[in-house]
């Protein structure tokens, strides 16, 4: 009961802060559940009048509410179907910046993590250079065995951040459950699933060992790439609350003038940003999901360097196939195939018409071919696509939320480097290569091989299952010899069960044998 009251009080405070800054009045009233009109009218009454832009007022409100709301705002930036297009545009400008915490607190965290003084861990630890909702970054130096020093980036977890997020997430879940209980649209949008995705993402970010592992995995996946890399992890100086990596000497992608002065080819950098993201998402199913300009550098060799892997996205083969075929369908204007992919993936209920859905997709896709390349937004197109799917009862897919969020950011970064960037021409080689590799003859052969291997593993397990059944029978026989008396009814039941078991075992063996034969001779 106390938890419920606390959640509602925190939500009421958040509502007041957002209403005061005019955030609630920017939500499309059509998106609000029935009966919320009085609340909407009251929010307009208490709205503070001022000359500041709506985006600036939104940023002020979110910062006042704390780091949990910064993360939530960044998520909702990709969901105009939830908050409306006007508010979504303002949320796109929201940056994860917070005041730094004191140097002595950071040093205390480092000493506690490694159980030794900071001066032993690092030869030097500078003041914080950047602070976000989860952690802040310092520049440090470490001593090498030969007496030299090397620069490192030291990321330190913000104190008490786990407790704060736990409290705020409880409030978010309360609001999401209420939204699903009171509104069919809330159930379709799967508000609780959205909070689930946010909670998992934040939990991963708050253990810096997991970020180190993500950096290591991304480095392994991209070791053959000549235009992309990530910093090397210093595992000896990494723990749950502290992450140490190599220091990157490079130019941030938001410093356009410095990139130009250094002689970098900006359109080429934009191409690398877009293609790297798509390649990692499609080829590996593992991608950097926080690719804003502050996390991307160009090093002196001209390579794109991504830092801060606290938020990573994963896609299964089903989701990767869905993404590739959707993008390729738009590239080739194959609206029927694009619609079929939604049904094959189970995203649109089968009782709807594929042809009707293809018509709705055509209504989104055809207009883009009458526009210049710089007027076409792939990220916005996906957003429109998800809006149209509401007409066909397509529920929110949590596994696609991070993908959509990242695509919005990546496209913005690429376009800032080259306003004339043709997103379709840039994406086509990566998407086509993946489709040829995975949906062509080679991919089909691999599918059959995987199926045969799975059947083989099942056959390998059969002897153990049979042996286990024999052991159970022997134990039962021993128990009865020791004097365990069973009634006639019980023994009859055991006999019938054993008979059924033998029949089902026989049937299972025949099915497995038939599948194996079919796979080998198809």
Automatic annotation (TrEMBL):
The keyword Kinase applies. CDD domains: UbiB (cd13972). The keyword Cell inner membrane applies. InterPro entries: ABC1_dom, Kinase-like_dom_sf, UbiB, UbiB_bact, UbiB_kinase. Keywords: ATP-binding, Cell inner membrane, Cell membrane, Kinase, Membrane, Nucleotide-binding, Transferase, Transmembrane, Transmembrane helix, Ubiquinone biosynthesis. GO terms for biological process: ubiquinone biosynthetic process. It holds the Pfam family ABC1. This is 2-polyprenylphenol 6-hydroxylase. Belongs to the protein kinase superfamily. ADCK protein kinase family. NCBIfam families: UbiB. Signal peptide: none annotated.
